[in-house]
Amino acid sequence: MTLSLSRRFGRSIVTLALFATVAFLIAPIVLTVVASFATSWTGVLPSGFVTFENWRAVLGLADTIGSQRSMGWRPLFSLPLGGERLTVLVPAELAFSIGLALGGVLINLVVGVPIAYAVSRYEFPGKEWVNAVSVLPLVPGVILGVAFLRAYPDLSATSFGLIVGYSLLKAPFMVMAVQSEFESMPLRQLEESARSLGASWPRTFLTVIVPNARSGIVSGAIICWALAAAEFNFSYIVWAKGTQPLALFLQRHISNSSFTKAAAAVSMFFFIIVAVTLLLQRVGRRGFDTRGS
């Protein structure tokens, strides 16, 4: 009797619990996006639809002052058009933060992938220490920010300092994601097969090992980029002047703007994360080739 009831209702209960959990997690995101197009949000639900003023204010298309200052627009590039030049403008904080996060991901790729490969492929003295050190930066951004500020006071005040800091903070995620992928691959057989055909070790690594590990590499890149773009604690400690990282821009709007403008700022960040994630996933599905032309 009990087994019959389990077969009859078990799957339905599990499915219902799954949908309820997903709805519980997605509801705040949907409500925030909806509120970004409202004029006010004083009760449980936003009201006064539909307006784009919140988005205009956040993107710097409307006049704002003081702590509610929105994004500034800066020229990205110019194109010749009918004897004149067409200048393409982008939001400063947005472009700045995307560049910082991508710079951190690039460092993570250059450093993290070889480390993950070495730890997964070879046995050598001190391997456990290398593996431990590779995940050592997995500490709160406040701690690394203070240490970074004291150790490299001149570097920390620059954009490159932020990039290096982001890469240090997120490197463990890249190493662990790629290491898991490498450990599921027959690395020795792949390497020996390529070497037996006359390929050098660098060529073997770049044209055989790396393309076969693209799933882990892309996953690590997505995680590192999303976390770096949203890194607040390290940015708050280290950033001194100039264009603000996006995390500080969001914090300013959340703290000093109306709920609806804060919702627009958060929604903008969410859409950026979704767009970059889909782009990187597309790269992962199509694959990539490091052999060149």
From TrEMBL:
GO BP term (any one): transmembrane transport
Protein name (database record): ABC-type transport system permease protein
Family: Belongs to the binding-protein-dependent transport system permease family.
UniProt-listed SUPFAM superfamilies: MetI-like
A Pfam family matched in the record: BPD_transp_1
Gene3D superfamilies per record: MetI-like
Membrane topology classification: Multi-pass membrane protein
Subcellular location: Cell inner membrane; Cell membrane
Entry-linked CDD domains: TM_PBP2 (cd06261)
Native organism: Haloferax prahovense (strain DSM 18310 / JCM 13924 / TL6)
Chain segments annotated as transmembrane: 12-38, 94-117, 129-149, 155-178, 217-239, 259-280
